[in-house]
Amino acid sequence: MINYNPKNWLSFIFSFHKSDTARMMWKELVYISLLSILIAYIEIAFFPEAVFLKNLTVVYSLLGFVISLLLVFRTNTAYDRWWEGRKAWGSIVNDTRSLSAKLSVLGISNEQKVLLKELITLFVFAMKNHLRDNALESDPELPKYQNDVVVDGHQPLAIQQKLRSEIQTLLDGQIISHEIWLAIQKDIDSLVASLGACERIKNTPIPFSYSLFIKKFIFIYVLTMPLAFVPLFGYFSAFISTFVFYALVSMELLAEEIEDPFGSDENDLPTDQICMTIHQNCQQIFGV
Total domain count for the chain? Predict the structure, then answer.
């Protein structure tokens, strides 16, 4: 995730960051420019007096209103998914702190505390990698642990099951009361619920037909735009079409980038930083 000063307008206007859509789609902008110039040339050379082309600006004004509504809905939907993912990870931070605080004051050995601490942080790192379709062991930021916890399959669920098993052992040994056990289980249940919320966001993309329609609509709208603006602007209508294409497709690209917020793109959620924060919090709370 990019940290920036939103009040520094000049740096935004005159800098070209690698996440800038102009750098991401410069080839498409060149292609659209060439096609628009070709269409403008055909209209000027072969249909200079075509009456039916002179009133197309009204039609394109109406179509522009329609496409703007579609893109607003598209962008809002994508941002809702991004923000829901951020709220889920915020809940994970709170729940791991609450769980660590409850476990750290129990009358158990330091070895048991170390194991519980490592299971909590392992769950978070496993969840991050699970949402990225990576194995937990491949994470370069994974801290070194004293206990060798081997998990297969759905790694976050396997780790939380191991954590529940350790808590159940404390209950069976009468080290904790049933009331404390219930409070601890509530925090673990909340962690699993946050995992499910993130999986729902990841595994439910925008419907294909909807995304396909927007892309086709933008392409046809921009490509035929010179037909309406050549009588007014001549060959400059090609540059107008290119700029409109840049504006519309940029909104679509940004929506595509943030609708799956758990990856490693610059505009995705800072899950690496959140995991390290949780690890540091657990270290501080347990003190072992």
Answer: 1
